[in-house]
């Protein structure tokens, strides 16, 4: 334990991230019970990958001198200098295109969008210049780039700053779309994304940045990497499968606790990857539990849940004992007023209710709302 | 070179030709310097333009002629193939603009990068692409430069420093500045030429990328191939200021006679030197396309046939070089005609070979989606019928 602490602090200077040693927790797999915030996890992943490969660079608004709009890139400018940590003007189309061009020429840029809402200004480059290039050139032009930043709803930021882009990006062949939940996910998936030779859209969550999660010694190692395209079963169960990603994994776990007290054993799957989608894990789980609830923050129509439900109906129809259920954000732009905002995103009770429906324990109220 | 001087020279030469024929063989391979004045001077914006006197050699002029004749033939043959429905979808032809491609190549190396939009066949050839790769790609065959999966707008030759081939108007400009960014990052003393049209010159992302290129002193040369029409819209109808070489504002610019291969060479050499020391520069090539925007555009609804034939008569890039070759007695009419015949022959042979090239294997539908597919599943139109594991 102390050996690991020494390794982090020793290489001169203030560590950009810290580790808090706490008493061991019940569900932690880590010996000694260390915790880390998602922010620090991301920072450490960036730091390690930049240290290991000189062609990795970070560019985006306020990533350098401001230390990152959400402090994810704190300390990196000091450590790696302005050649590798680049503050860009507020011109997403321009700097995203430039980053893709740099990737064409062999660099490995990490592009930060202050939020993915702003990625819409650059979406042509993400889709047409990055995602499709390897295919159109039949392998000549590969694009080892990562587009990362906070995605989805924050708190009270209104309609233009709250959209979830998982479904949009994940529909595009040629992209990989990753969605970390906890600190281990954040470290392992970001490192995997940076090392991956293809364009990766890395969807973080602003509200998770400050949350602390236990982290294992293995996850703290600089060679740690999570496989792309593999979901994780966060909690095993036998009555209903709840599939979620990002912040909703936390909600799903809370729902599972509540359901357990009522005698329903929920299996919670943390997707980790929207594209590739781990259909095998989801199907295997539903074939065991016979019931499915998908949870996402994004808009319902053509969302991630829609794809998962279609996939299950196609592959595991005979195993379903109840219709598939989707819990999603409301089908409206995000309102500002606190009470309306609360209604516009999934709450734990929504997940519990849907799970109970699949178990024939509750009847929906609003049939013709 | 002024036309009157040329006529006198040719008149003179006609008498001398038989007597000095033995000399011609020596001069054709000559690498001794010939200095030619461009017919139009360069105009600078926030920069002193280079001299109108361009150094060249007999060898270089011959290579210009040969290369442009090949490019011209290739594009005209593509026109026929398209009408025969062997080429499908989009086909944007470059005939008329060849001087930009050959002049640029003469000034740079294959370590410098070029990126352009969809009018890319001749640039591809200039970067070392072959006729077979070109025609095969146009017809969607296996031997195409993108193995048939790209098409006319997506030619690439990475080992030749050619990064495509882009279908979205203006997107290639930030991409090109990104190539320059990587060149600077790697300290490799090379530059990137980013080509775009007068239509793309109004794109916002151009100004975004130019701002960053100037801010960070990137070795990026933005080349506006101004053929005066953005599809069917004349430049004066699309741009408040069609002085594209000035549109960089704080970035210097040069206006160049884009139908003169030597002027293009001079400008590109000048620009490369500038970009390596001082960051971005804009080159506006005053050029012209004989074909319409694409094969679906006759090209005569928004411009007169007189205009097109006028440019062909007065400013054709191949004719320019022909006149120089004749005037300097580097080759005679017959030799030049033979070169054009040879070009035609090479093109015809390449087309015949390309026609024999098969369509890609059905399994190619699923290749190159990713570099590393992790064996992930992909689907055909009926996912219960066709699935594949991505390699």
Automatic annotation (TrEMBL), chain A:
Record SUPFAM superfamilies: Thiamin diphosphate-binding fold (THDP-binding), TK C-terminal domain-like
Function: The pyruvate dehydrogenase complex catalyzes the overall conversion of pyruvate to acetyl-CoA and CO2.
Cofactor(s) required for function per UniProt: thiamine diphosphate
Gene expressing this chain: LOC113742351
Alphabetized Pfam families for the sequence: Transket_pyr, Transketolase_C
Catalytic activity: N(6)-[(R)-lipoyl]-L-lysyl-[protein] + pyruvate + H(+) = N(6)-[(R)-S(8)-acetyldihydrolipoyl]-L-lysyl-[protein] + CO2
CDD domains: TPP_PYR_E1-PDHc-beta_like
EC annotation from Swiss-Prot or TrEMBL: 1.2.4.1
Top enzyme class: oxidoreductase
Gene source species: Coffea arabica (Arabian coffee)
Record InterPro entries: PDHB_mito-type, THDP-binding, Transketo_C/PFOR_II, Transketolase-like_Pyr-bd, Transketolase_C
Gene3D superfamilies: 3.40.50.920, 3.40.50.970
Keywords of this entry: Oxidoreductase, Pyruvate, Thiamine pyrophosphate
Protein name per its UniProtKB record: Pyruvate dehydrogenase E1 component subunit beta
Record has Oxidoreductase as a keyword: yes
Taxonomy of the source species: Eukaryota, Viridiplantae, Streptophyta, Embryophyta, Tracheophyta
Residue ranges annotated for the Transketolase-like pyrimidine-binding domain, each copy included: 36-211
UniProtKB/TrEMBL annotation, chain B:
Molecular functions per Gene Ontology: pyruvate dehydrogenase (acetyl-transferring) activity
The keyword Amino-acid biosynthesis belongs to this UniProt entry's keyword annotation: no
Span list, region Disordered: 294-313
EC number(s) reported in the record: 1.2.4.1
Domain of life according to the entry: Eukaryota
InterPro entries assigned: DH_E1, PDH_E1_Alpha_Subunit, Pyrv_DH_E1_asu_subgrp-y, THDP-binding
Record's subunit section: Tetramer of 2 alpha and 2 beta subunits.
PANTHER family: PYRUVATE DEHYDROGENASE E1 COMPONENT SUBUNIT ALPHA, PYRUVATE DEHYDROGENASE E1 COMPONENT, ALPHA SUBUNIT BACTERIAL AND ORGANELLAR
Stated name of the protein: Pyruvate dehydrogenase E1 component subunit alpha
Species of origin: Coffea arabica (Arabian coffee)
